[in-house]
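hey all, quick one before standup. I had two proteins in the batch that finished overnight and I want to keep them in one place so we stop losing track of which output belongs to which input. First protein below, input sequence then structure tokens straight from the run.
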Amino acid sequence: MKTYSDQGKVYANWARGRLLDPDFGASELEQALTAYIAEGNRADAPSLYGLLAELEASELGPESSLPSIDRGLAIADETGEHFTDPYLHRLRGELLLKRNPSEPAPVEEAFKAALAAAKVQGARSYELLASLSLAKLYQSIGRHADAHAILAPALAGFTPTDEMPEIAEAQALLVAIEPTRMWATNKHRYGLAFVLF
């Protein structure tokens, strides 16, 4: 029962942190998670460290939350529980982007790791989320053709739903980047046409 009680406290404090007080929620969540781990529990620990990282980032900034992501990924390696790897890698990318938007390389690496992990698992929703994050990064640095190439196949087969608003966001992004992508893809042809005429 103590295992379930400690795990319940983690979720309750995450919810409290998201809704009311990120600082208090993060502190209490960390205490509950420490108690859960001290009992020898590792099940769900990678995702629980992700929840802690979310709250730490809200209150203290992205830099303070990266160690929690590292801990979650380390436990995943210890236990073989990798189903939340796409979530943790994508979260790392989002936090790195907030920390330093002018340095896209580590952000791209994190999003690509999330995408690769999702593909290995056949986790289509995680694949779409990672693809959307990567496509938004590519759009922000002018790589519209790359954004389209990543997002279009990940979006195939999804229809918008209230439970996953990222589907509509991904569809809107594809529409927004399409004209720029077409120009970038065909500019050499347009340039040649101008020379000929």
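OK second protein, same deal, sequence then tokens:
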Amino acid sequence: MPDDRTDLDREWARFLAGKEPMLRFGRSLFRFLPSPPRCKLCHAPFRGPGAPLMRLIGKVPWERNPRMCRFCAKWLLKKGAGGAEVEVALVFADVRGSTGLAERMAPREYSALINRFFTVVTDALVRCDGVIDQLVGDEVIGLFLPGYAGPEYARRAVEASRMLLTATGHGDPAGPWLPIGVGVHSGVAYVGSVGSGETFTDFTALGDSVNTTARLASEAGAGEILITEATARQAGLEIPDAARRTLSVKGRTEPLSVCVLSGGTLPG
């Protein structure tokens, strides 16, 4: 255990940079084993053919947070609650009109629909080397850290968003099987553990960049990806002028310039 706060922050920075050998090895190996749901940190599968092997090495859902495996949780607890400010790209995906959908569907039917949504989102994030931050209600949050997704982490975030639209049927002549809107933004966020005392309850991102991405997702229409202009440039996207929009976002004094990708014809 580090002797002071500075050393702990350095260890977290190393972890988030993808330089921790244990996590790097796990993510490179387990990503090829089916199937979701997976540990949000090491990608160990909790179901499918690989699950029995994972259980033998302690990679089972953690009792206090089933989105992590018990192995990773214990490893993080040994480090101590903490984190670091790092560059990150974020993806927020929201179901549009979820309240109306829930009113028109039986609870079991609605639950099956949302679970199907979580499955395709998890697949897209994992394939693009994202970290699953939250699967809550009708919303999914993904983190793209340079240490895991590589130097083109912003582009990987956009790729995952495009996969989400395709996987939910946007661009299909028959229409989507679930209408979603997506927000993508990059910037500095505090990424690490949150909780109280000697234990932590989750691994997440906090800060203005996170709030901005959430507001983008709330402004996106069904079948739209709203990307901040700076993030679009970082991702190397060629965006026509017609696909630009200026938003007055709650909580920000200055308007936000965004690029809009929609439907099945998404420029690269």
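Flagging for whoever picks this up: The radius of gyration is 19 Å. The first strand starts at residue 61 and ends at 62.
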